[in-house]
Write a sequence for this structure.
């Protein structure tokens, strides 16, 4: 499958440069990174031996990696074939990022779900650990929009590589989830998640405002 490419001259004001590659990595770290999934993964694999946990982590990583590659390439290709305007793509991306960021910030106020005492451990569902724990729908949507906004093959490959790199971080955290929670604890991770959520709100608003200016032709 040929990678979709849009000439830079065809993209007014080059909206892809509003987000640096560091910004893209931060967005992927928030949306498909380990901060949001470490708790659910640890709870789902609590009854497994270390060897079984590593085996589950490998399966989740492999399925997630294939899903990211397919969704990114196919989704971006479809968006280009539908001739969606760059400003509309940018607005859609900003809206997705804003909704996810608000969800992360408000999640700090939700009470944690505690399993009843004496509940027997059950084998984790791999499908659940992939979708939505590791790859939520908004993470896939963000990947597709960012790749469609890339403006060229080189940046598209960078974006795809950053998404795959975050999945490698997910794999490492899944391997060492138990010692990580033992030595670090949940509270610092929750604080980090809240800080990252606020940063994403700012990035999302910047994208939305810039997209509105592009659509107005200013």
């Amino acid at each position: 499958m040929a990678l979709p490419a849009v000439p830079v001259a065809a993209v007014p004001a080059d909206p892809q440069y509003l987000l640096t590659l560091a910004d893209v990595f931060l967005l992927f770290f928030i949306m498909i990174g380990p901060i949001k999934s470490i708790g659910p993964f640890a709870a789902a694999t609590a009854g497994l031996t270390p060897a079984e946990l590593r085996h589950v982590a490998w399966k989740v990583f492999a399925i997630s990696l294939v899903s990211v590659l397919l969704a990114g390439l196919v989704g971006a290709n479809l968006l280009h074939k539908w001739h969606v305007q760059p400003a509309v793509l940018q607005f859609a991306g900003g809206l997705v990022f804003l909704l996810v960021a608000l969800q992360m910030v408000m999640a700090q106020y939700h009470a944690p779900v505690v399993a009843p005492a004496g509940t027997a451990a059950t084998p984790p569902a791999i499908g659940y650990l992939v979708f939505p724990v590791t790859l939520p729908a908004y993470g896939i949507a963000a990947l597709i929009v960012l790749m469609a906004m890339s403006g060229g093959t080189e940046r598209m490959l960078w974006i795809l590589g950053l998404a795959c790199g975050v999945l490698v971080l997910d794999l490492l955290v899944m391997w060492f989830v138990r010692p990580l929670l033992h030595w670090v604890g949940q509270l610092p991770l929750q604080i980090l998640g809240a800080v990252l959520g606020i940063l994403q709100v700012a990035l999302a608003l910047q994208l939305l405002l810039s997209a509105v200016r592009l659509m107005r032709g200013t």
Q: What stands out?
A: Residues 1-16, 112-120 have pLDDT under 50 and may be disordered.
